[in-house]
Amino acid sequence: RTSEAPGETLAAIERMAEMATNKLLDKLASGLALSKKDYVRIIKAGAYTNRVHNATGLTAIALGAKFGMAEMVKQLAGAGADVNWRDEKTGHTVLHMACVRGHFGVVQTLLEEGADPSATTRHFEMDCLQLATMNGRNGIAQLMLDHGKAYPERKADAKHKNFEGEDALLMFEI
Predict the structure, then answer these.
(1) Rounded to whole angstroms, what are the CA distances from 97 to 7, 66, 92, 106, 124?
(2) pLDDT in the model for residue 138
(3) DSSP bridge partners of 120
(4) What is the pLDDT of residues 137-147, one digit of tens each?
(5) Is residue 55 over pLDDT 50?
């Protein structure tokens, strides 16, 4: 039996984590559904949870939010993924992505994991509540307001005005 030097062992572990990260991001970016068993195994293999995918520019948690994968978002958050990660191109946070697409379960998970509902987009200064109401996501808007009652230190501001001076109530669609 030969023993590896500590540096060689560390390099092997880093290669495994790199492969796990690439596998997770590639599968997510292609829109392939991953089973809970698959993504838990990949995360446990040491996937870098905050790595940006080269082709999409999104992290695993952002891709999970985009595709409505609430359980995976929860697992990634538990493994240290940044629930307030922001896409440099669009200025949207992970929570913005879930609100716009109407992924109620993902929004709920992100709020429970500490995502900031008052974060605004860079381009139009819109917060998550405004994005939800503008896109007719009334259930998500209500969820955010209810969350703010339970956690006043982490609440969406219904009076926040975007770059045009509109608040969430003005954007509300019936």
Answers:
(1) 40, 6, 7, 10, 15
(2) 93
(3) 127
(4) 999 999 999 99
(5) yes
Whole-angstrom CA distances from 125 to 78, 91, 140, 167 are: 29, 9, 19, 11
Distances, alpha carbon 118 to alpha carbons 36, 58, 83, 121, 167, in Å: 30, 21, 13, 10, 13
State both tokens at 174. 């019936």
Q: Please compute Rg for the chain using Cα positions.
A: 18
- pTM for the structure as a whole: 0.81
Neighbours of 164 (CB within 10 A): 10
Q: How far is CA 30 from CA 56, 60, 90, 119, 141, in A?
A: 10, 12, 20, 28, 29
pLDDT in tens, 103-118: 999 999 999 999 999 9
Say whether pLDDT at 173 is over 60: no
